[in-house]
């Protein structure tokens, strides 16, 4: 008779093995990393640029995101429509992406079409014309999207949160206002394009079925005559300043839910404690079985979802706890979050819980390596911090070495509810707010 | 090409196995043949609430999630109007744990009162977060009952109203489980770093003794052909007006489905598509516009939704959409344009084969439609669609008497006009 109450035997999760790229350098100095997987029919080619800023301006991320969106909206020889037609015709995807620290252009294509598409990308990277009409359309549409976004409590809470944990005068903390869109000019974008989209500021990552012919094509097209002014290596990092830790409350009269966001700046990936802090974060709010999720969703039913994350940027790291809860339990949720953080600092977690989080994180790492593209993504993540794939061995080792004592010590070192920025957008109901300490 | 092997247990459970040894993970996907379309009109949102309860402990295992996390696995689920789909990914060495967990909750739930109480709250918060506390979040709660008058697609998976969730009782939960959660109404796909014979043996071990249960006979009312244009206008606290146009179209297995899907690609897929080019870029009439097919198993909807640019009224915006629809009705799609959307279907299909989870879900869904091999043969059905068939679909679908139009207006603008 089958005993269904007894779990099948657990088998240890084996070591992960990450694929190392082949590193090359083209004649013009462009570094190239190749992740080879010959059984694919696909290739992904990514041109990655570090964000730069125009002289005399405080770091303005809006310019970088506009540049990213407008890259493929016209060159000196092709219109926006012609570019779109060609990419779509070959069943490819040409995706510009913008993040806090980098701007990238990724081409996903079946191998057999790379030949026709690479010259198009070259055109975009060297001859983009950023037509005024396309800029106008972009600004018009983005201003509309912006108006919708600021109706969302979650979006408002996020803006306020970034302003507060990084300060408003840098790429991480500066969030757009409607009028900022009107200040963008074509001349600025062209200047930014000329200084940023150059081989000396570029890293090329090629993954999938990367044939010798493809590499030769890439070298011919991007590795010889592609030039540009060298990037000024003396560029400084952003000036960061974490703001007030008083609760910031923006009331929305008709809200059904409140968006809550708290957190602080913290260590980034290059710090030796980073994997261990990731562990503490996972246990607190980083997965479905985390304490915040179990307490605030699964026991109390206050929310559809709550989570915490520790993220790394080029120049700092930050921790954030995010949820949307019923207005009548807004204050209660803040209280519970505080309780959970303090509990981590004062009471040892059980061995069982620590082991569960270890296994979960190992499984999660294994599961994140699904295709050759995920191996390339892992590499990309550490590259930005100037690290190598050795980071992941260190990470796994640190995770395996966690203990209840280490969790407590790390929590004491890095988590401080009182020092966290706290933002609520929505409503704290009257009955609840009687006990509210600070509302501003 | 996704290769697979199939077997059926005596109790009716259908199992498909797809081996992919490029990964060290396995995926177990179980599709239950029940969705919001199977709910009673007085108890909407129940299939989805039930999905939440499936994580609230089963007869022999108090905590589903914890047991899975202990072996390095993750899981989730979704409910649609047609199906409820559960999936687990975990290191393949611990595959048996996934089968143990899934078989126990197919056998019986614990029916914990506390879980019901909490999940009613969680789902209510989900209702608020996604539908009520979001700009335009309730558009579908209005559009569905406009487009469907009889078929249960007239309500959304979250339900018609919060009260239906709040009033769910344990008796309802038990009856729903008995009716829909048994081996006969389930399809399981195991994919990834697994071996067919091992999966077969383990499936027999864990699922073999679950009773077949009674077969559920689906008898849904058929949506009658629409005979005149339907219009509704609603005002809400949103900054911009929005336009929603829904047309009836072929069901998933009906003739013309693939032509309809390509029609939506021609109109709206990618930045070279017609509506984007003509109405956003050239005409500057919309700030955004999308067209898509719902992909429902029964009577489908072809939906066009967009937000007009500042200064463009919803009436003007609607006229501009109709003008584009007239073009595609009256002129054959040029060969290159048709080839373009077919090429995209082909390449997207290759991308979908990168993920063992996507493959497992797709296999299960095609098996539900009648033949798992559809995962491999569907592309050729798209490729064989002619320009004439696309035109026929356009002519059949884009008729005013087949349209339901929701004008979602900004209250701020109403105030300006009145004042």
What does this structure look like?
The complex is a heterodimer of chains A (440) and B (419). Chain A is globular and about 65 Å long. Chain A contains 16 helices and 11 strands. Chain B is α+β, with helices and mostly antiparallel strands and 419 residues long. Chain B has 2 domains: 203 residues, 2-Layer Sandwich (Cytochrome Bc1 Complex, Chain A, domain 1), CATH 3.30.830.10; 189 residues, 2-Layer Sandwich (Cytochrome Bc1 Complex, Chain A, domain 1), CATH 3.30.830. Chain B has 16 helices and 11 strands. In chain B, strand 1 and strand 2 form a beta hairpin. Chain B is globular, with a radius of gyration of 23 Å. Chain B starts with a strand and ends with a helix. Chains A and B meet through helix 2, strand 5, helix 4, helix 10 and strand 9 of A and helix 2, strand 5, helix 3, helix 4 and helix 10 of B.
Present the secondary structure layout.
The complex is a heterodimer of chains A (440) and B (419).
Chain A: E1 22-25, E2 31-36, E3 42-50, H1 61-70, H2 80-89, E4 93-98, E5 102-110, H3 114-127, H4 132-149, H5 153-166, H6 178-182, H7 186-196, E6 202-208, H8 212-222, E7 247-251, E8 257-266, H9 274-286, H10 291-299, E9 303-312, E10 317-326, H11 330-346, H12 351-367, H13 372-383, H14 390-400, H15 404-414, E11 421-426, H16 430-433
Helix pairs in contact in A: 1-7, 3-8, 9-14, 9-15, 10-11, 11-15
Chain B: E1 5-8, E2 14-19, E3 25-32, H1 46-53, H2 64-70, E4 74-79, E5 84-91, H3 95-107, H4 113-132, H5 139-147, H6 162-166, H7 170-180, E6 186-192, H8 196-207, E7 230-236, E8 242-249, H9 257-268, H10 274-282, E9 286-293, E10 300-308, H11 314-330, H12 335-352, H13 356-369, H14 374-383, H15 387-397, E11 403-410, H16 411-418
Parallel strand pairs in B: 2-6, 7-11
Antiparallel strand pairs in B: 1-2, 3-5, 3-6, 4-5, 8-10, 8-11, 9-10
Domain Peptidase M16 C-terminal (chain B): 169-344
Organism (chain B): Sphingobacterium siyangense
Keywords (chain B): Hydrolase, Metalloprotease, Protease, Zinc
């Amino acid at each position: 008779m089958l005993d269904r109450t007894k779990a099948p035997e657990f088998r240890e999760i084996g070591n992960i093995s990450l694929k190392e790229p082949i590193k090359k350098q083209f004649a013009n100095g462009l570094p190239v990393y190749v992740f080879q997987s010959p059984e694919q029919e696909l290739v992904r080619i990514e041109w990655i640029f570090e964000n730069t800023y125009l002289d005399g301006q405080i770091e303005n991320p809006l310019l970088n995101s506009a540049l990213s969106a407008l890259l493929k909206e016209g060159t000196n020889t092709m219109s926006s429509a012609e570019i779109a037609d060609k990419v779509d015709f070959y069943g490819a995807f040409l995706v510009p992406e913008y993040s806090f620290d980098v701007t990238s252009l990724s081409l996903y294509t079946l191998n057999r079409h790379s030949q026709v598409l690479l010259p198009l990308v070259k055109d975009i990277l060297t001859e983009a014309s950023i037509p005024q009409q396309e800029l106008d359309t972009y600004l018009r549409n983005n201003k509309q999207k912006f108006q919708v976004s600021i109706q969302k409590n979650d979006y408002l809470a996020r803006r306020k949160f970034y302003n507060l944990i990084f300060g408003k005068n840098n790429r991480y903390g500066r969030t757009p206002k409607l009028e900022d869109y009107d200040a963008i000019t074509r001349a600025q974008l062209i200047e930014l394009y000329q200084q940023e989209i150059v081989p000396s500021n570029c890293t090329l990552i090629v993954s999938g079925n990367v044939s010798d012919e493809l590499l030769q094509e890439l070298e011919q097209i991007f590795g010889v005559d592609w030039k540009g002014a060298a990037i000024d290596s003396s560029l400084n990092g952003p000036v960061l300043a974490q703001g007030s830790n008083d609760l910031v409350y923006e009331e929305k009269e008709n809200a059904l839910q409140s968006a809550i966001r708290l957190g602080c700046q913290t260590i980034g990936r290059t710090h030796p404690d980073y994997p261990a802090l990731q562990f503490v974060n996972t246990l607190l709010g980083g997965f479905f079985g985390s304490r915040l999720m179990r307490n605030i969703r699964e026991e109390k039913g206050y929310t559809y979802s709550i989570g915490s994350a520790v993220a790394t940027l080029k120049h700092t790291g930050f921790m954030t706890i995010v949820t949307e809860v019923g207005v009548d339990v807004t204050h209660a949720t803040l209280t519970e979050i505080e309780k959970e953080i303090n509990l981590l600092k004062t009471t040892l977690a059980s061995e069982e819980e620590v082991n569960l989080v270890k296994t979960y994180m190992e499984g999660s790492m294994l599961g994140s390596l699904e295709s050759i593209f995920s191996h390339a993504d892992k590499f990309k993540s550490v590259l930005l911090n100037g690290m190598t794939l050795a980071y992941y061995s260190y990470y796994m080792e640190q995770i395996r070495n966690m203990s209840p004592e280490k969790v407590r010590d790390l929590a004491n070192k890095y988590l401080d509810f009182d020092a966290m920025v706290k933002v609520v957008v929505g409503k704290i109901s009257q009955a609840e707010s009687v006990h509210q300490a600070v509302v501003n | 090409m996704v290769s697979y092997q199939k077997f059926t247990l005596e109790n009716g459970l259908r199992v498909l196995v797809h081996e992919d040894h490029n990964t060290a993970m396995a995926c177990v996907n179980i599709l239950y043949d029940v969705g919001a379309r199977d709910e009673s009109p007085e108890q909407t949102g129940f299939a989805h609430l039930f999905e939440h309860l499936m994580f609230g402990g089963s007869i022999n295992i108090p905590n589903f999630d914890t047991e899975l996390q202990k072996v390095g696995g993750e899981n989730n689920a979704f409910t649609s109007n047609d199906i409820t789909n559960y999936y687990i990914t975990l290191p393949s060495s611990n595959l048996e744990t996934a089968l143990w967990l899934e078989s126990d909750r197919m056998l019986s739930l614990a029916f914990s009162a506390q879980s019901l109480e909490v999940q009613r709250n969680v789902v209510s918060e989900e209702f608020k977060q996604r539908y009520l506390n979001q700009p335009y979040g309730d558009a579908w709660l209005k559009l569905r009952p406009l487009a469907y008058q009889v078929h249960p697609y007239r309500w959304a998976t979250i339900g018609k109203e919060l009260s239906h969730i709040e009033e769910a009782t344990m008796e309802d939960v038990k009856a729903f489980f008995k009716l829909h959660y048994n081996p006969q109404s389930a399809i399981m796909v195991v994919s990834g770093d697994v071996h067919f014979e091992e999966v077969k043996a383990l499936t027999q071990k864990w699922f073999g003794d679950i009773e077949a249960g009674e077969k559920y006979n689906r008898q849904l009312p058929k949506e009658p052909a629409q005979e005149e244009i339907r219009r509704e206008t609603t005002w809400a606290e949103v900054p911009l007006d929005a336009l929603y146009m829904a047309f009836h179209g072929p069901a998933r297995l009906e003739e013309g489905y693939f032509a309809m899907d390509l029609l939506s690609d021609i109109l709206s897929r990618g930045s070279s598509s017609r509506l984007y080019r003509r109405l956003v870029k050239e005409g500057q009439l919309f700030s955004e516009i999308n067209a898509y097919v719902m992909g429902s198993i029964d009577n489908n909807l072809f939906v066009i939704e967009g937000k007009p640019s500042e200064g463009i009224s919803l009436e003007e915006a609607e006229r501009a959409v109709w003008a584009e629809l007239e073009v595609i009705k009256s002129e054959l799609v040029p060969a290159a344009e048709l080839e373009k959307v077919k090429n995209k279907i082909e390449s997207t299909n290759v991308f979908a084969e990168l993920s063992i989870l996507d493959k497992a879900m797709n296999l299960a869904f095609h098996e539900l439609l009648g033949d798992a091999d559809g995962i491999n043969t569907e592309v050729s059905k798209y490729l064989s669609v002619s320009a004439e068939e696309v035109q026929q679909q356009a002519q059949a679908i884009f008729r005013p008497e087949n349209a339901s139009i929701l004008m979602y207006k900004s209250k701020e603008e109403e105030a300006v006009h009145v004042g």
